[in-house]
Specification:
Keywords: Cell inner membrane, Cell membrane, Membrane, Transmembrane, Transmembrane helix
Radius of gyration: 20 Å
Low-confidence stretches: 139-145
Distance between the termini: 67 Å
Subcellular location: Cell inner membrane
Pfam family, one: DUF454
GO cellular component, one term: plasma membrane
Largest sheet: none
Structural class: mainly alpha
InterPro entries: DUF454 (IPR007401)
Oligomer: single chain
Helix content: over 70%
Number of strands: 0
């Protein structure tokens, strides 16, 4: 087996590692596309897809990961979550409103009571999660003015 130069810290990747990296990259690009669609299409979320894209990019492409965090539209959302685990107030309110509308529609259209109650529990968890996240530093500054 050939010796690597002493200063070389990069180890050769096996087939499995290369395939996993390509899978992570494909997922990252898919989620960037879905998040981008959420910017222009109503009712399609942006932030969750971008968070997934950033996670997948961190496992596959440092360049894509850096691009996401420095992007003028996506970067602030990602940095706000990474640094403060915060969701902007507008996003929280929209999410809660969409959950309420979905719950109403589900309660009217879904027949079995056990299914309604199960879905209600999951939706309640989502509402509690959104409501308990901080707004973040950008929202707090605008509240003080």
């Amino acid at each position: 087996m050939a010796e690597r130069p002493e200063g070389s810290s990069r180890k050769p990747q096996g087939l499995r590692e290369r395939l996993m990296r390509q899978l992570w990259l494909a997922l990252a690009l898919l989620f960037v596309g879905l998040g981008s669609a959420g910017v222009v299409l109503p009712l399609v979320p942006t932030t969750p897809f971008l968070l997934l894209a950033a996670y997948c990019a961190s496992r596959s492409s440092p360049a894509l990961h850096a691009w996401l965090y420095s992007h003028p539209r996506f970067g602030p959302l990602l940095r706000n979550w990474r640094d403060h685990r915060a969701i902007p107030r507008r996003t929280k309110l929209l999410g809660i409103a969409l959950i309420a509308a979905s719950w109403t529609w589900m309660w009217i259209t879904v027949e079995p009571l056990y299914l309604r109650l199960t879905v209600t529990a999951f939706m309640a968890f989502g509402v509690v999660f959104l409501a308990t996240r901080p707004n973040g530093p950008s929202d707090e500054r605008s509240d003080d003015e």
